[in-house]
Amino acid sequence: METKTLLTDCPDAMGLISKITNICYKHQLNIVHNNEFVDHAHNQFFMRTELEGVFNDETFLFDLDRALPTGSHRRLISSTRKRIVIMVTKEAHCLGDILVKAFDGTLDVEIAAVVGNYDLLADLTEKFGIPFHHVSHEGLSREEHEKKMITAIKQYNPDYVVLAKYMRILTPDFVAQLPNQIINIHHSFLPAFIGAKPYQQAFERGVKIIGATAHFVTNDLDEGPIITQNVIHVDHNFSAADMARSGRDVEKSVLSKALGLVLDDRVFVYENRTVIL
Q1: Do 113 and 134 meet the contact criterion of CB atoms below 8 Å apart?
Q2: Is the Cα dihedral 217, 222, 223, 225 positive or negative?
Q3: Contacts by 52-57 with C-beta closer than 8 Å and gap 24+?
Q4: If DSSP codes are grouped into helix, strand and coil, which group holds residue 196?
Q5: At what angle do helices 240-263 and 198-205 cross, to 10 degrees?
Q6: CA-to-CA distance for 134 and 140, rounded, in angstroms?
Q7: Catalytic residue positions?
Q8: Could you report the per-residue pLDDT of 203-236, keeping only the tens digit for each?
Q9: What is the pLDDT of residue 197?
Q10: Which of 50, 65, 161, 263 could form a disulfide with 32 if both were Cys (CB 3.0 to 4.6 A apart)?
Q11: Helix (H) and strand (E) counts for the chain?
């Protein structure tokens, strides 16, 4: 017996749930859990189905493709532990949170390595028995540095790359090598205050809430599909530095929550949005 997750998204049509579940029954696969959603504005259907049984992936997907409308996408995902590489610069709070949660099992993930453009977080990483790669950017063009970074990352063949406060903008060439596989934490409630120094921007604007946003990375700075967000309240007594200190707890909790959703195969990327089931 195996357990797998079927992710289906396609143009909406009558009887889709029945068609999909009947194929599962035909292949003697037990449905453990099922969720669906219809985006009526775009006439798009989404369904996440947890299955258990004896799988013949090729024949199952062949039958499914025959039943689904043109323009459908489906993935059958094995329930194996996923592998990530974490990219960092200097700040430890997001990295430390992921390391601890992977260690205690809160996040079911294999952290293959941590790669940083500074070596300040090497000791923290190695305390958990995880290799740290220092790939300095000093004296290199952005393209030269990223070539070294992608070489360090790809030797581990990760399912996802997590930017745990990695503070350099990635080039389109880098992003193209890992489409919808790079997860970033931005220290702002997007779409407000994109780019650098968002807490300073928030302070100058006199905001009453600050937040953080986890999103997939695209070529548009801080505008990729949003996975999850959260906020906390602040007031006129908070300086920009106070906001930054308070925001760290939000940043790490939002990033780990987003990572958990992605690892659990609950996230559909559709155009520049996500659907979470």
Answers
A1: no
A2: positive
A3: 52/1, 52/2, 52/3, 52/4, 53/1, 53/2, 53/27, 53/28, 53/29, 54/1, 54/2, 54/28, 55/2, 55/4, 55/27, 55/29, 56/27
A4: coil
A5: 120
A6: 14
A7: 222
A8: 788 888 888 999 999 998 778 999 999 998 888 8
A9: 77
A10: 50
A11: 8, 13
Mean per-residue pLDDT, 181-186: 95
- Report the Cα 69 to chain-centroid distance in Å: 28
SS (H, E, C) 138-190: CCCCHHHHHHHHHHHHHCCCCCEEEECCCCCCCCHHHHHCCCCCEEEEECCCC
How deeply is 116 buried, as exposed, middle or buried, from its count of CB atoms within 10 A (0-12, 13-18, 19+)?
buried
Of 72, 77, 71, 11, whose CA–CA distance to 38 is shortest? Answer: 11
**Is there a contact between 158 and 130 (Cβ–Cβ < 8 Å)?**
no
SS3 38: strand
Query: 85-132: per-residue pLDDT in tens?
Result: 999 999 999 999 999 999 999 999 999 999 999 999 999 999 999 999
What pLDDT score was predicted for residue 190? 64
Average pLDDT score over residue span 143-157? 97
What are the CB-based long-range contacts (under 8 Å, 24+) for 197-204? 199/240, 199/241, 199/243, 199/244, 199/247, 200/240, 202/240, 202/243, 203/238, 203/239, 203/240, 203/243, 204/240
Which ranges of 27-161 would DSSP assign to H, the alpha helix? 57-67, 93-104, 122-127, 142-154
